Every structure is written in structure tokens, then in C-alpha cells.
Amino acid sequence: QKEVEQNSGPLSVPEGAIASLNCTYSDRVSQSFFWYRQYSGKSPELIMSIYSNGDKEDGRFTAQLNKASQYVSLLIRDSQPSDSATYLCAAYTGGFKTIFGAGTRLFVKA
Amino acid sequence: DGGITQSPKYLFRKEGQNVTLSCEQNLNHDAMYWYRQDPGQGLRLIYYSQIVNDFQKGDIAEGYSVSREKKESFPLTVTSAQKNPTAFYLCAASRSGGAAETQYFGPGTRLLVL
């Protein structure tokens, strides 16, 4: 069964620090990867997408993909209390199917 | 103001009752999806639709039904056959279903059983 695994957390970091969120996936044919942020009681919103090996940066966010190791990560620099949320990792596996991880809860302490 | 709307925000279901969750989008996206989210779990795909008048079962379709009569609308019916319907239901849309296509989510409907 295709899976996306994340540490459930909570991951607690002080304000201004770097938060590192990790994700592994089981399906080697996964083509695209997404990080969503979900605030409590709200729907997921896209933070980053990444399709190729390496790093992709967007503002304070950097996504990293290593297909050989089946590993995706999200770095949040200069973490803010407003970054406190659950971060969902997702992998597109083909045929309109995207597998979502259970999410990592991040808590940024002011 | 483009986006995806879901209604109602909260829905209460009585034993043996069918209920319908609404999902409307004005993004002009071809593909639409229904997911279920339970506490501590990832999103699970219920149904998806690539185009109008076509839809496919996802991983947990039992006890649910959908229709796609219009591009903008993809309602989900939770039937009495779904024995554990309490969850957060999320509708999503993407331009197509390709690998590079981002899914955009509506605000969700929380279904509770009386």
C-alpha cells in the first residue's frame, strides 16, 4: 500500500529558529510532492510544490526532494508564531491519486 | 472572487438518514475531489471526477455517492450505509489531474451524527 509517513509531532521551535519538517514516501513512481499548511479547524492551503531532486525556495520556505532516498522535507526559516499549524506532506502517485500524510504539528513559541 | 465553496459548514445526521454536502467552484477547473479527514489521519480520497458526467471511486467510496452534472458542482451524498460518517469533509479542485496540478481546497464541512 502506498504511504506517506510523517512524524506527528508536536515539533516545538522558538520564534526566529528554523523548523525542519520531514516526510518519507513508499511509492517510487511518485512524481510530484506538495506541502500544505492546515490551521486547526480549517482546510489545507498549499505552501510549496516540488517535482525535481534538489531544493526549491520560496520566501522563508525551502522544500527539499531526494527521490533516491524517497524523502521530502520542508524548512521554515525565521519561524513565526503564525506558522504554528499542522503541515501535510502529499505525493502524487498517478491516475488522479494524491496520497496525504497524517501531518506534523508545529508549534512556534514566542 | 474565485474559489471553492462548501456548505453547510456543520451538518448533523440522524440515524438512517442520507445527507448531501455541497461543493461549488468558479475556478473553471476540470477535476474535482472529495476527501475525508479524521483526527490524526491523512486525507483519504472518497471520489474524484475528471470531467462532467464522469466520476471514479477513490479509496473509501463505500457508503458515499456523487454526481457531476455541471463543471462547477460536485455534491457528495453520505448514505445511511456509511456507518461511521463523523469526519471533516473536504472538496478540492485542480485544473486537470496531472502530476503538476495543485489541488485547491474548499473550507470543509464537519459532519456529526446525532
Instruction: Please state roughly what percent of the residues of chain B sit in beta strands, choosing from under 5%, 5-15%, 15-25%, 25-35%, 35-45% or over 45%.
Output: 35-45%
Number of helices of chain B: 0
Overall mean pLDDT score of chain A?
A: 93
Amino- and carboxy-terminal Cα gap of chain B: 35 Å
What is the overall silhouette of chain A?
A: globular
Q: Could you give a short account of the major beta sheet of chain B?
A: 7 strands, mixed
Shape of chain B: globular
Calculate the terminal CA-CA distance of chain A, rounded to whole Å. 40 Å
* Low-pLDDT residue intervals, each spanning 5 or more residues of chain B: none
Task: Note the total helix count of chain A.
Answer: 0
Oligomeric grouping of the chains: heterodimer
Mean pLDDT across residues of chain B: 93
Helix content of chain B: under 10%
Short description:
Chain A is 0% helix and 58% strand.
Structure keywords:
heterodimer, A: 110 residues, five-stranded antiparallel β-sheet, 11 strands, 58% strand, B: 114 residues, mainly beta, seven-stranded mixed β-sheet, globular
